[in-house]
Structures are given as structure tokens and as C-alpha cells.
Amino acid sequence: MNTSQLKQMMLSTAHQMIACEPMLTELDQAIGDGDHGIGMKRGFSALVKLINDQTFQPLNVGECWIQMGTTLMMSMGGASGAVFGTLFRAGGKSLAGETEFSSVSLARWLNQGWLAVHARGGAKPGDKTMVDALAAAAGVANSAQSLSLSEALTRCAEAADQGAERTKMMVASFGRAKNLGDRAIGHCDPGAVSMALILRFMAQYAENEVG
Ligand code: ADP
Ligand code: MG
């Protein structure tokens, strides 16, 4: 997948994330302050604007991810603005100068992204954050590097989905849900669900458009 296809994949992903706003709001109302859906909608609307701007012509996939991450970070606010912005930017830095986004790049993007998110906010798997979905996807991506990008994305999306589902049984150690203690049990972490959705929408685009 070249830089222009990556832009189209993320444009499609952004439109679908915007449509998930009510569901994400409901999740954050259960264990947070209810703004996660609005924040994601704001960030991904800014991403749509960036990608549709004719002056946005990144020279390679690394630069494309970095600029998309900066846009998320600047527009979203909240914990998730920093977290998803960091994933996109750190993932992008690990792909500096590369002109193709492949299953090998996906593995690097997810693994460097999750290391950076961990370095920034301290969350590790089991803490009931988006890291539960991200780390699960990163692990699967490592063993999917010989597959096509579409197949690798599909597997990563499934792993992220399972990671997000596992957060239901967890008590939170980070973010606002931390204050709820055991009352957070029974609810999925909204950021983990967002992480799984992003990968699912990327996988759907890659399957339909790239094969
Ligand atoms: P806020 O907590 O500022 O209201 P959001 O509601 O937009 O931010 O996002 C909440 C999500 O952010 C959580 O569901 C969780 O997945 C994620 N999150 C919070 N703190 C961290 C952290 N330290 N590391 C990784 N993800 C985090
Ligand atoms: Mg919130």
C-alpha cells in the first residue's frame, strides 16, 4: 500500500469512527466522564479535513502517519488525544522514509506505537486501557509479517477486539475509571474499543480495496 492508498484507508476509517460516536459516548458514560465519543469524533473529523486538504501531500508513509497523529493530538484533547496521537506519531517515526505500508510496517507501527504509549502514560496490559487492545494487536502483528497487509490487519483487528473484550473483567489502574474500583467490572474500556474499531475499519478497507 503506497502513501496515497494509506491516506484513503485512513479517510475511510475516520468516517466510520465518526459514525461510532454514540456507541463510544455510551461506553465512556458507564466508566468515564462521557466525552470519549465526542473526542474521537472531533479528532477524526480533523483527520478527514487534513486528508481532503489538497496541500496535504506527505512524501512517504512515515510522514503521513506523523502528520495524522499531530492532527489527532491537537484536535482531540483528553487522555485519548495524547494516547492515539502518540500511537500514530511514534508508529510513523518508526517508518521514516518508507514508501510502502505493508504487514511488516504494520508490525513495526503497532509495536513502536505501543512502546511509546506505554512510555508516555505508563499503562501496561491488564490496566484496562486501550493498551489492552493495542498490545494484543502488536503481538499478533509480529507473527503475521509474512501475510498480506489485508490478512495481517484482519488478524490484528480480531486480536484487538479480544483484548478490548477482556477489559470488561478488569479493574482500571489508569484514567478516570480508576476511581470506580470494582464498579468498572462488566464494562469494556472505551479507548480499547476505539483501538479495535480503528484496526477493524483499516482491515475492511484493505480487504475491499487492496486485497
Ligand atoms: P479522558 O479520560 O480525558 O476523558 P477520553 O474519555 O477521551 O479521555 O479517553 C479515555 C480513554 O483513554 C480510556 O478509555 C483509556 O483507554 C485511555 N487512557 C487513559 N489513560 C491512559 C493511559 N495512561 N495509557 C493508555 N490509555 C489511556
Ligand atoms: Mg472521558
UniProtKB/TrEMBL annotation:
<dbReference type="InterPro" id="IPR036117">
    <property type="entry name" value="DhaL_dom_sf"/>
</dbReference>
<dbReference type="GO" id="GO:0019563">
    <property type="term" value="P:glycerol catabolic process"/>
</dbReference>
<feature type="domain" description="DhaL">
    <location>
        <begin position="4"/>
        <end position="204"/>
    </location>
</feature>
<dbReference type="InterPro" id="IPR004007">
    <property type="entry name" value="DhaL_dom"/>
</dbReference>
<dbReference type="GO" id="GO:0004371">
    <property type="term" value="F:glycerone kinase activity"/>
</dbReference>
<keyword id="KW-0808">Transferase</keyword>
<dbReference type="Pfam" id="PF02734">
    <property type="entry name" value="Dak2"/>
</dbReference>
<dbReference type="GO" id="GO:0005829">
    <property type="term" value="C:cytosol"/>
</dbReference>
<dbReference type="InterPro" id="IPR050861">
    <property type="entry name" value="Dihydroxyacetone_Kinase"/>
</dbReference>
<dbReference type="InterPro" id="IPR012737">
    <property type="entry name" value="DhaK_L_YcgS"/>
</dbReference>
<protein>
    <submittedName>
        <fullName>Dihydroxyacetone kinase</fullName>
    </submittedName>
</protein>
<keyword id="KW-0418">Kinase</keyword>
